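EI: anyone free to look at a 200-residue chain?
SC: sure, send it
EI:
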Amino acid sequence: MRILARSLLMALALGVLGTVPAEAQERTIGFKLGPSFSKMSLDQDEGQKWLTKFTGGGFLSFDMGAFRLQPELTYVTKGGKREVAGASGDVSFDYVEVPVLFVLPMGQGAGIRPSLYAGPAIAFEAGCTGSLGGFDCDDDDRTKLDIGAMLGGGLAFPAGPGSLLVEGRFTFGLRNLVEVGTLKHRTGALLVGYSAVLRP
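SC: here you go
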């Protein structure tokens, strides 16, 4: 079932990318990186605090007229930490994440350009360390494929041949990752980056 789910999700992502017309008006390439802030929805949630880690990656953006279609490939660490009665612990999940975002530009011209975006994010676990709230990385009853809904917005500042990017985003984990109990990710990020138009 897990192999089938992965195959279906990858086929969906490739299908979405396949709808990008060859005559798209503009194609942009870029990168983003910054700190990530995550918690987990757990059955034992008392004392949980935000876990600060790192996220970063690259993207392509295609002008579709009223909006832009933006697939990304990112590395992100999710998880959580707990501090109760002087004791502390944390768990970190390393993911390769593939968001497919629909970006709505809010301004035009040569000045500062705000935008909003939303879309699905598929994440594949690459590693796990630690334990928290009754969960341990050695447990085998979890799925390593996460599915989330990503929301965000940002500003693009003209800088040289491209644009300096400043963004904030939040991803709501939609999939329960364990067979017994509850484990879902909640992850925010503050990002800076740079993008430039791909010339023919």
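EI: The domain at 2-11+26-106+113-197 is CATH 2.40.160.20 (Porin).
SC: 👍
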